[in-house]
Design a protein that fits this description.
The relative contact order is 0.24. The protein has 250 residues and is an alpha+beta fold. It has one domain: Alpha-Beta Plaits, CATH 3.30.70.2660. It contains 6 helices and 13 strands. Strands 1, 2, 3, 4, 7, 8, 9, 10 and 13 form a 9-stranded mixed beta sheet that branches. A two-stranded antiparallel ribbon has the order 5-6. It has a two-stranded antiparallel sheet with strand order 11-12.
């Protein structure tokens, strides 16, 4: 297996999930739809190219390692729902019904709460499934991340990366093993203990036996035509130790 290593390092990042009512909670790891949206933005895809976005999302497979957890913070926002582009009927609520933006409330300003990870660093091992020659190829994704068609952000537009997202290429038996071989950021590697463990997330089958950690279903795919989260897949979470520099070059 071969792929690309990405480094998510930013003052603020948002690994968003389904939004319920006015609360935009975040996950501890980046989901598939976020990775697909980031890569699509780098490639210059348009929001209306639903089939291309869906195909890219289907082909992407990734694993994530938390190098520095950071701090979870919350932003208080307001939004005017009377604007034309916000007139939608696909907002999920905790009451089991779709919120209809109509009547007097649609002309008022509403409160929104949005969470972020502050001062966190994540390393992502990314690969593309299906034929190597299908566009975009890994080479095309690498070039796009190095010279993107549009400015890139990590989750929301306010989350600008502190450094280039592309780190290096990798070859490994699996995404999990790739995470073990990708080095820490230099400032963290100097402080890390030899046997230090880092939380990691990687895709698994729901009946796969795990040596360490556990697996659970997550909803992190997007229906790009309707702009809602959908589908389900199994993701494992567990601790990993990193290979030494000598082991990485063995």
């Amino acid at each position: 297996m071969r792929g690309l290593a990405l480094r998510f390092d930013a003052p603020m990042m948002s690994f968003g999930g389904p939004i319920v009512d006015n609360r935009g909670d975040i996950r501890p790891f980046p989901g598939r739809s976020m990775i697909a949206g980031l890569v699509a933005n780098a490639l210059g895809y348009d929001h209306a190219e639903f089939e291309k976005l869906e195909r890219l999302q289907t082909r992407i497979s990734h694993a994530s390692r938390c190098d520095r957890r950071g701090e979870k913070i919350q932003d208080y926002q307001t939004v005017d729902l009377s604007q034309d582009f916000l007139q939608d009927d696909r907002a999920w609520t905790t009451r089991g019904e779709l919120e209809q933006r109509a009547g007097a409330s649609s002309d008022e300003t509403h409160i929104r709460l949005r969470d972020y990870w502050a001062d966190a660093i994540h390393t992502v091992a990314l690969t593309l499934e299906a034929p190597d020659e299908e566009s975009p190829t890994l080479d095309e994704v690498r070039r796009a991340l190095q010279t993107p068609e549009r400015p890139l952000f990590i989750g929301r537009k306010s989350c600008l990366p502190a450094n280039s997202l592309y780190l290096e290429d990798w070859e490994a038996p699996s995404l999990k093993e790739a995470l073990r071989s990708i080095p820490l950021p230099e400032e963290l590697e100097k402080k890390a203990d030899r046997d230090e463990e880092f939380n990691a997330w990687w895709p698994v089958d729901h009946d796969e036996e795990l040596e360490e950690g556990f697996a659970k279903p997550v909803t992190d795919r997007r229906d790009w035509a309707n702009q809602i989260h959908t589908g389900e897949r199994w993701v494992a979470r567990g601790p990993i130790t990193l290979r030494t520099e000598a082991e990485r070059h063995d």
